[in-house]
Amino acid sequence: MKLDKFDREILRVMQKDATVSMAELSQYVGLSHTPCWRRVKRMEAEGIIRQKVTLLDAKKLSLGVSVFIYVTLKNHDGDSLTKFETAVQEIDEIIECHTTSGDKDYLLKVMVRSIEEYELLLKSKLTCLPLVDHLSSTFALKQVKNTTELPI
């Protein structure tokens, strides 16, 4: 789907505040209510707008420890990858899982309350993930940038 300047502006505004009313959105982008509404509905139907979410403050929820974990698997056949990826879905503390190129197979992002909580998670769940050969953890010291907005 080709996006014009109005579509892109609608997306920019909605990324900043998904609760914006259609009346406010149409004012921000310089369209009347109905054409703006049609564009939003079209982008929802096309899957460009997947969902509207509420963003939470991890620190205020006492989830102050972010850990990035590189995972290397023992096997790389399709069944092994599927088993690992299915198991990852069951661990709530894993908030992101990416396949990667190079000598590591996956990159996980984990959020926990403390180093001790991470140690328990590591021992009780992460090392038990199917076909894991090696885990390498790195703790984030400070988050320098955090955005949910795509560069459109």
TrEMBL record:
Keyword DNA-binding attached: yes
Domain HTH asnC-type intervals: 3-66
InterPro entries named in the record: AsnC-type_HTH_dom, Dimeric_a/b-barrel, Tscrpt_reg_AsnC-like, Tscrpt_reg_AsnC/Lrp_C, Tscrpt_reg_HTH_AsnC-type_CS, WH-like_DNA-bd_sf, WH_DNA-bd_sf
Gene3D superfamilies per the UniProt record, alphabetical: 3.30.70.920, Winged helix-like DNA-binding domain superfamily/Winged helix DNA-binding domain
The organism's place on the tree of life at top rank: Bacteria
SUPFAM superfamilies named among the record's database cross-references: Dimeric alpha+beta barrel (SSF54909), Winged helix' DNA-binding domain (SSF46785)
UniProt keywords, alphabetically: DNA-binding, Transcription, Transcription regulation
PANTHER family in alphabetical order: DNA-BINDING TRANSCRIPTIONAL ACTIVATOR DECR, LEUCINE-RESPONSIVE REGULATORY PROTEIN
UniProt protein name: Lrp/AsnC family transcriptional regulator
Species whose genome carries this gene: Glaciecola petra
